[in-house]
Amino acid sequence: MRRRRLAHAALAGLLVVGGLGAAAAFPASATGSAPAHRDVSARPASDGILTAMRHDFGLTPEQAEARLADEKTATALDPKARRIAGAAYAGSWFDARSGRLTVAVTADAPAATRRALDAAGADVRTARHSARRLDSVKSRLDRLSAPSGISGWHVDAKANKVVVDIVREDRSDNDVQRFLAKVRESGPVTVKTVADAPRTLAAGTVGGDPYYTGNVRCSIGFSVYGGFVTAGHCGQPGAGVSGWDGSYIGTFQGSSFPDNDYAWVSVGSGWWTVPVVLGWGTVSDQLVRGSAVAPVGSSVCRSGSTSHWHCGTVLALNETVNYSQGAVHQLTRTSACAEPGDSGGSFITGDQAQGTTSGGWGNCSSGGETWFQPINEILGRYGLTLHTYTG
Hints:
disordered N terminus; alpha+beta; about 20% helix; Thrombin, subunit H; about 400 residues; six-stranded antiparallel barrel; five-stranded antiparallel β-sheet; single chain; GMP Synthetase, Chain A, domain 3; serine protease
């Protein structure tokens, strides 16, 4: 859908001519006045996020607000809980049923540590293997060359194991079986069968509200000062970027793929950035206020130029995904769907930026899963500052 004019409900003073990908950059025809806005500081998220949550999770308005408030509390508690647990830390996740952060610790965790976690507001569970042990096993797998029938691997804190995903139709492949035999020797590993292999989500040139690099269409992720971040597989350093109408936006200044899947594009020629994720007319646009990492189990919503708004759950952190082009590390796995052309688009929990769309399997008709590159890693790699709204 090409929009001729887009009004941001929360940024009433900014009018945008034309549409962009998951746009964080806007043309010079936008007004430059200070934005008027209503006070949303007391709410866990904008009306758009709440609407999407109600639609994709089947929640009432009150349940959607309560879950996002609980997730915000769990997100703030997570790094504190890791420090309290210390060497006994065995993983953590948000439990949607209890609305609390669950923290696993090894059996040798002192009673004082368990009491401190309980006092901080976490539910405590006992696990056999520490997070350090599981991360070490995953690191050994990261050094292996995996066949195409292995779609990826990650640490599952709930299972207290490293999960290796194999594509269903490749279960009997000799190379897959040899790889599995090798990884089982590495430590606590379990195997899971998945429906399909992940793929990157760039697309050929079609109409809509994307950005283009040559004949590749992708989606803008988040504004940073001086440009925006997106997926690395969408373009190489030096490649020019144009908007939906063919006008020049800027240039890829940095890009990495595979191994990583991130990039940033400088903005020029009258374009500038604002801290907004588009709702595509389905929901209101969302202000970006920070980049606190949502724990496993949290809700997350995605915006992209093909499938627009969809929500899901964070399924795993720090996953290695074995694309046909090569392995990409430290991705976050979600149950949100995506389609070709959504690459680079925004993942956000509440008003906190999470990352940029990398790839996935399935689609938004039959369902699937999607991975994103965490935003804080991209910012740190290129020394960028996320453009956030502080009103």
